What does this fold into?
Amino acid sequence: MIETLDPLLEIKYLREENQKKDLRISKLERQLEQLLRIVYGNKSERYVPTIPNQISLPLDMAAVKEPEVNREKITYERNKVSGKSNHKGRLPLPDHLLRVDVDIEPKEDVTGLAKIGEEITEQLECEPGKLYVKRYRRAEW
It folds into this structure.
């Protein structure tokens, strides 16, 4: 700090120093923001430095010769069961659980139609202290 007797000059000096420090702080904040973007930003915003001794590829790709490759054709046979998959699906729900049936009937009039089967869907339900299976039965007409 300048040792002066005039307080106006001292205030002017302090204001200039304050402006310089504010400018430096804003510059450092911008640098910090850029560094944080590099580290935590989107992949497209990240900076990837170049390796100093890395050889660059030539721009004329026609000049680059593709290496000669020996190719051989391989065939095989596979036994495939038509229409069936090896996947077994989920395990069935245990037989000892209580079954609660819910019958779902169509809303339309089905007089004169013959019932050809029924589709059953089982869903595991729970109440505090017990498990049971809710079975939804839908008639197929």
Summary: Residues 7-45 form one domain. The mean pLDDT is 83. Residues 108 and 141 are 11 Å apart (CA to CA).
